[in-house]
Specification:
The complex is a heterodimer of chains A (280) and B (461).
Chain A: E1 2-11, E2 14-20, H1 22-27, E3 33-37, E4 45-48, E5 51-53, E6 58-64, H2 68-74, E7 81-82, E8 84-89, E9 100-106, H3 110-122, E10 126-133, H4 142-148, E11 151-156, E12 163-164, H5 167-176, E13 183-187, H6 190-200, E14 207-210, E15 226-229, E16 232-235, H7 236-239, E17 242-244, H8 250-256, H9 261-279
Parallel strand pairs in A: 9-10, 9-13, 10-11, 11-12, 13-14
Antiparallel strand pairs in A: 1-2, 1-7, 2-6, 3-4, 3-8, 5-6, 14-17, 15-16
Helix pairs in contact in A: 2-9, 5-6
Chain B: H1 16-19, H2 32-39, H3 49-52, H4 60-69, H5 72-80, H6 86-92, H7 114-128, E1 142-146, H8 150-161, E2 165-169, H9 178-181, H10 190-202, E3 206-208, H11 219-224, E4 230-233, E5 239-240, E6 253-255, H12 256-265, E7 282-286, H13 290-301, E8 305-310, H14 321-329, E9 333-336, E10 338-345, E11 351-364, E12 370-374, E13 380-383, E14 386-389, E15 393-394, H15 398-402, E16 427-429, H16 432-435, H17 440-458
Parallel strand pairs in B: 1-2, 1-4, 2-3, 4-16, 6-14, 7-8, 7-14, 8-9
Antiparallel strand pairs in B: 5-15, 10-11, 11-12, 11-13
The chains are: A alpha/beta (280), B alpha/beta (461).
C-alpha cells in the first residue's frame, strides 16, 4: 500500500498527490511514468511523474478528474493509501546536448511538461515554454514554469487569461520570430501533440512527443499501448513514451484511444452516482 | 488387488452448454470414492517409470499408495516434498506427455489418472488441513527471486524450506505470473494460486509486488546494495508477437496476453471491475496453442461466436488435446488450414473482417511438422469485430537491457549452464526466460534445479 502524504487541489478538477514510494523516488527521471491502482477492484492507469524527492522518498503526480478511476482517486485523502503504485516506467526523456528548446504543454500535460522543462533548464539550455489551457480556471504551475523558462507564453482557448488561441498559434509566432530550436517537446492531449507536430514539420524542427495510449501492465507484456511510428510497431510503455512526433501515425493513435469510450463514460457516471449516494 | 479397469475414472465436469456461459471451473475434481478407486489402478511398479516423466520428480507411486489407503494428508506430504504447487500442476500439467505417458497401465488402456489424483490430494489438503507449515530456522543467507511465476515460486519454496531468507520480486500487483494473468479461472481458480502463494509466505518467503526489476530496482542493486547473495531470474516470456499484416493496429485487434490479462488479472468480466473489456459478437483467435484455446474459450464466455484460425490442420494443433476437445464441446468453431493475410475495418477503424487464405500441407520442415503452403487465389473474408493474436511470446527484453554482462541467445533467452547459472556471478535463471514459452512444469523443474545449485554454493559459505 502507498500512502498519500499530501493532497492539494490545484484547480477544481486538477489535484496534486504526493505519494510515499521511496524506491520509485530514488530512480525516477523526467518523462517517466507510474501505474497506479486505487483499490482492489481498480483498473491500472498510467500517470506521468510530475516530481520526485529521493530524500523524502515521495513521488508527486498531478491528475485531472476525467473518469471513474480519477474520480475515486479524488475521494481519497491525505493519509489514505493507494492499492498499487508501480514504476518508474518507460524511458526517461533525453534532454542532454540541447542549446535552445521549446516545451509545449497542454492542460494537465503541463504537469508532466514541467519536470522535462526544468531538466532542460538545469542542463543549461535556453528554454521557451508555451502552455495552453481551456480557460483561466484550469491554469496550473504558472510560477514553476515562469522560474525555469526564458520565455513563457500562456494561452487559453477563450482568452480568459494570457493569449487567446491555441498553443500551435503561439508556437508558430515564436518560430516565425526567428527562434531556431534544436527541439520542440510537446505533451498534452493527443490531438494537440498531433498539431504541434504538424506545425513544426514544414520547418524541419525535431519534435518529441510524450504519447499516452491506453495501457494495462506498462511493462511490455500486452501490446495494448502499441503505436505505429515510422511504419514500425512500438510499445509506448517500454519503447517510449517519447517518440518522434513527425513519425507517429496520429489518426490511428487517436482512434485507438477511444476504444473503450462507452464503457468509460458509463463507469464514470456509475462512480459519481455511488459517491453521491454515500454523501446523502 | 489392483483395480484392473482399462479406463480412468472420468473427471466430473460442468455441462459444456452451461460452462460456456460462466467462468467457474470446468473440471469438478474426483470425489473421495473416485480417488480411492483410481488409486487402486496403480501397480506400484518397482522401477517407477512415471517418475521419469515428472520434471520435479514427485514420488508418484508412494503418494498414490497413501491415497489407496485413504490417508490423503500423508499423500499430500509426499507430493509437497518435491512440488511447491500440486493443486496447480494437477490441473494444468500436460500429463499425457509427462508422468502419464510412461505409466505401465497406459500400454493397454488408460494410464493411471496421476494428474487427477494429485489435484484431488492437494484440494483435499487445502480443504481439510489447518496445520500451518512449520517455518524453518533461518540460515542467514539472502536470495532474491525475480518473477513470481511457476519457476520463481518453486525456487523460492525449495530455498525457504532449507532456511534461506527469500524475497520474490513481482512486477504486477498479484503473485503467480501466468497462473494469475494467463490461465483462466475456469481451468485454474485464482483462489488456488493464492493459497499456494500463502503457503510460501507461511514458510517465510517475502513477496514484493509492484516491483519491476530493471526499472524499480536493478539486478546489480539487488546484489551490491540490498545484500542478496544469489539472484534467480524467472521473469518468463511475456512479450507478445503480432502478425506483420495490414490492419494489425485497428480497434478490436489485441494480443491474447492483453485479452487474458484484462479477464484473468483484472477480472474485467465482473461488473464491479473498473477495467474495460470488449464484448465482441464474432471473434477470430489466430493461433493453435493452449493460449489460443484459453482466449477462444474466454471470448465464448463473453457471449461471442468464436473462430480459431490456424494455418495447419486439426492434427497439428499445438494445444493439448483435452483443451481442443473442451473448446469444441463449448462451441468454438475451428477454421484450420487458414492463415490471415489482412484485417479490415469500418470508417471508424473498428475491425469488420479478417481476410484469410486457404493453406495446404507440404513436406515436413526443420521442426518436423508439415509446412503450410498458401493456395493461390483462395482468399476469403470472415465477418468479425475482434481479432485476438495468440501467436506466442518471447522473453521480455527489460532485464537483458538493464543488466550488464548477462549473456542472451538469438531468441532473447538468457543463456545458462546445466545448474541454471548465467554468465553473471551468482545470478541464475530458469523457466520461459531461458527457454522461451514452454510449460508450467518445465519452469518448475528449472526453479528446482537452480535452488539446488544456489544451496550448494551458499551452504559452503
Amino acid at each position: 500500500m502507498y500512502r498519500i502524504v499530501r493532497k492539494e487541489a490545484l484547480r477544481p478538477t486538477v489535484t496534486l498527490y504526493e505519494i510515499e514510494a521511496p524506491l520509485i523516488a530514488k530512480k525516477a527521471q523526467p518523462g517517466q511514468f507510474i501505474i497506479l491502482r486505487v483499490d482492489e477492484h481498480g483498473e491500472r492507469i498510467p500517470i506521468t511523474i510530475n516530481n520526485y524527492d529521493p530524500e523524502k522518498g515521495t513521488v508527486t503526480i498531478i491528475v485531472q478528474t476525467v473518469g471513474a478511476t480519477t474520480e475515486k482517486l479524488k475521494h481519497l485523502n491525505e493519509g489514505d493509501c493507494l492499492q498499487d503504485f508501480v514504476g518508474p516506467l518507460g524511458k526517461a526523456t533525453e534532454t542532454e546536448g540541447k542549446k535552445k528548446v521549446c516545451v509545449v504543454g497542454g492542460g494537465v500535460g503541463c504537469a508532466i511538461a514541467y519536470p522535462v522543462l526544468k531538466k532542460f533548464h538545469d542542463d543549461g539550455a535556453e528554454v521557451h515554454a508555451v502552455v495552453g489551457f481551456k480557460n483561466k480556471d484550469l491554469v496550473i504551475l504558472e510560477d514553476d514554469f515562469r522560474k525555469s523558462s526564458d520565455i513563457l507564453k500562456i494561452c487559453t482557448d477563450d482568452g480568459s487569461y494570457g493569449q487567446k488561441g491555441l498553443v500551435t498559434d503561439a508556437l508558430k509566432e515564436l518560430i516565425d520570430a526567428g527562434n531556431q530550436y534544436d527541439e520542440v517537446f510537446a505533451i498534452g492531449p493527443m490531438i494537440m501533440m498531433k498539431f504541434v507536430s504538424k506545425t513544426t514539420e514544414p520547418y524541419g524542427i525535431p519534435t518529441t512527443v510524450s504519447m499516452s495510449p491506453i495501457m494495462v501492465d506498462g511493462t511490455g507484456m500486452c501490446g495494448g499501448c502499441r503505436l505505429s511510428v515510422g511504419g514500425e510497431m512500438k510499445f509506448a510503455c517500454v519503447d517510449g513514451p517519447d517518440f518522434d512526433g513527425h513519425k507517429v501515425d496520429w489518426d490511428l493513435a487517436v482512434k485507438r484511444n477511444q476504444m473503450y469510450r462507452d464503457f468509460e463514460m458509463h463507469k464514470h457516471e456509475e462512480t459519481c452516482n455511488l459517491f453521491k449516494k454515500e454523501a446523502e | 488387488m489392483a483395480n484392473m479397469s482399462l479406463t480412468k475414472n472420468p473427471m466430473p465436469s460442468q455441462d459444456p452448454n452451461v460452462r460456456n456461459k460462466n467462468f467457474e471451473e470446468v473440471a469438478l475434481g474426483y470425489t473421495e470414492a473416485q480417488a480411492l478407486d483410481e488409486a487402486q489402478r496403480c501397480l506400484n511398479c518397482k522401477n517407477k517409470p512415471c517418475m521419469t516423466g515428472c520434471p520435479v520428480m514427485v514420488h508418484i507411486p508412494e503418494f498414490i499408495a497413501e491415497v489407496a489407503k485413504g490417508d490423503f494428508e500423508a499423500a499430500y506430504q509426499i507430493i509437497s516434498n518435491t512440488s511447491a504447487l500440486p493443486a496447480v500442476c494437477g490441473r494444468v500439467c500436460p500429463q499425457e506427455s509427462q508422468c502419464e505417458k510412461y505409466c505401465v497401465r497406459g500400454k493397454k488402456g488408460d494410464p493411471v489418472g496421476i494428474g487427477r489424483l494429485e489435484r484431488f490430494v492437494a484440494d483435499w489438503h487445502n480443504a481439510h488441513s489447518t496445520a500451518a507449515p512449520e517455518k524453518p530456522a533461518s540460515n542467514g543467507h539472502k536470495v532474491a527471486v525475480v518473477g513470481s511465476g511457476p519457476s520463481g515460486l518453486t525456487c523460492a519454496g525449495d530455498l525457504a524450506r532449507k532456511g534461506y531468507d527469500v524475497t520474490v520480486f513481482e512486477a504486477l500487483h498479484l503473485a503467480g505470473g501466468v497462473l494469475v494473468y494467463g490461465i483462466p479461472e475456469f481451468r485454474l481458480p485464482k483462489s488456488i494460486v493464492q493459497k499456494e502463494v500463502d503457503g510460501l509466505k507461511a514458510l517465510g518467503v517475502t513477496i514484493a509486488t509492484d516491483t519491476v526489476i530493471g526499472r524499480t530496482v536493478s539486478i546489480d542493486e539487488l546484489q551490491d546494495e540490498m545484500g542478496f547473495e544469489a539472484v534467480f531470474i524467472g521473469s518468463g516470456a511475456g512479450l507478445p508477437m503480432f502478425m506483420d499484416i495490414p490492419g494489425v493496429n485497428y480497434k478490436g485487434v489485441l494480443s491474447a496476453n492483453e485479452f487474458l490479462t484484462r479477464i484473468n488479472l483484472m477480472k474485467a468480466y465482473l461488473p464491479d471491475s473498473d477495467t474495460p473489456i470488449i464484448h465482441p459478437k464474432k471473434v477470430a483467435v489466430v493461433g493453435g496453442g493452449n493460449v489460443a484455446m484459453d482466449a477462444a474459450r474466454c471470448a465464448k464466455r463473453l457471449g461471442a461466436e468464436v473462430y480459431v484460425v490456424y494455418r495447419r490442420g486439426m492434427e497439428e494443433l499445438p494445444a493439448r488435446k483435452e483443451e481442443v476437445e473442451h473448446a469444441e464441446e463449448e462451441g468454438i468453431i475451428f477454421k484450420t488450414l487458414n492463415n490471415p493475410v489482412e484485417i479490415l475495418a469500418d470508417e471508424d477503424d473498428n475491425v469488420s473482417k479478417i481476410r484469410c487464405i486457404k493453406m495446404e500441407l507440404g513436406e515436413p520442415d526443420a521442426s518436423g511438422r508439415r509446412r503450410p503452403i498458401e493456395v493461390a487465389g483462395s482468399e476469403f473474408d470472415l465477418d468479425v469485430d475482434c481479432v485476438i493474436m495468440a501467436l506466442g511470446t518471447s522473453p521480455n527484453p527489460l532485464i537483458k537491457s538493464t543488466t550488464k554482462g548477462l549473456e542472451i541467445n538469438k531468441k532473447g533467452g538468457i543463456v545458462v549452464n546445466e545448474d541454471g547459472l548465467t554468465s553473471r556471478e551468482n545470478v541464475y535463471a530458469g523457466g520461459d526466460a531461458v527457454t522461451g514459452a514452454a510449460t508450467v512444469i518445465l519452469a518448475m523443474g528449472a526453479g528446482k534445479t537452480a535452488a539446488k545449485a544456489i544451496d550448494e554454493v551458499l551452504s559452503k559459505k
